[in-house]
Amino acid sequence: MSTPETSRFVRLRVELVVEVDDENALTKAALERVAEDPDVAPDERAHAESTVTEDTAEALAYLVDPFDLVSEVPGVELAQASWSSEQIEYDPDSPDWDLDEDDEARDDEEVVG
Questions:
Q1: Which class for 14: exposed (0-12), middle (13-18), buried (19 or more C-beta within 10 A)?
Q2: Are the CB atoms for 18 and 61 separated by under 8 Å?
Q3: Residue 82: inside a domain
Q4: Is residue 100 domain-resident?
Q5: CA 30 to CA 45: how far, in whole Å?
Q6: Distance CA 76, CA 48 (A)
Q7: Which residue range(s) make up the domain with 39?
Q8: DSSP output for the chain
Q9: Tell me, what's the pLDDT at 26?
Q10: Of 26, 24, 30, 16, nearest in space to 90 by CA
């Protein structure tokens, strides 16, 4: 019996909807992160500050780091990450916010063991 070779790489998809109930606190935290970020060149700092001040979604994106999600997971090294944020209209009772079709299919599958 042979074992098929599998990739060592796994795509982890995460979609979050968060409620921002204190925009000022979020913006302040993002501005502090910009000020402390050694990777932001001085000429880019003003642009980053303007961006996180004008757009709450950008402030949140500046504070969320995919590396933080997996940095403590044993045996895993982040190979690549991308993320984005946007302000949305959210209605938790709307069918548009149901689980993805793939998630529903998995929930309906029987576990054979």
A1: exposed
A2: no
A3: no
A4: no
A5: 12
A6: 30
A7: 23-73
A8: -PPPP--S------------S-HHHHHHHHHHHHHH-TTS-HHHHHHHHHHHHH-HHHHHHHH--HHHHHTTSTT----------------TTSGGGSPPHHHHHHHHSPP--
A9: 97
A10: 16
Task: Enter the tokens of residue 95.
Answer: 């069918």
Q: Is residue 87 part of a domain?
A: no
What pLDDT shows up at residue 113? 43
Instruction: For residue 37, give Cα distances in angstroms to 14, 33, 48, 76.
Output: 25, 6, 11, 25
Q: What is the pTM of this model?
A: 0.70
Is the residue at 44 inside a domain?
Answer: yes
How many structural domains is the chain composed of?
A: 1
Instruction: Average pLDDT across each block of 10 residues of the chain; the chain has 113 residues. List them in order.
Output: 72 90 97 93 93 95 90 93 88 76 51 45
